[in-house]
Amino acid sequence: MGDYPIALSYHEKALEIFQKTLPSNHPDLATSYNNIGWVYRNMKDYSKTLSYYERALNIWQCALPSTHPHIKNVKNSIEIVKKEIIKSI
């Protein structure tokens, strides 16, 4: 448990494959960004977390209906991470 660097490397490899094989606005690409953000969040690297979550959100907002749960969940995650950043200052 907690072997986040290994998890990160696997998610980054998956992202590379998706970037080569999927259109830049494909929802699966957003899922990959979200997964990497989740790993960074657990590593407490909040600036990278926000970057990846925001990439996921941008794609999902273009590719999915505005009521889709992925959009709601990542927006909620972004707000939580912003609060964590404020707490860490």
Automatic annotation (TrEMBL):
Keywords: Repeat, TPR repeat. TPR repeats lie at residues 30-63. SUPFAM superfamilies: TPR-like. Signal peptide: none annotated. Coiled coil: none annotated. It holds the Pfam family TPR_12. This is Tetratricopeptide repeat protein. It comes from Adineta steineri.
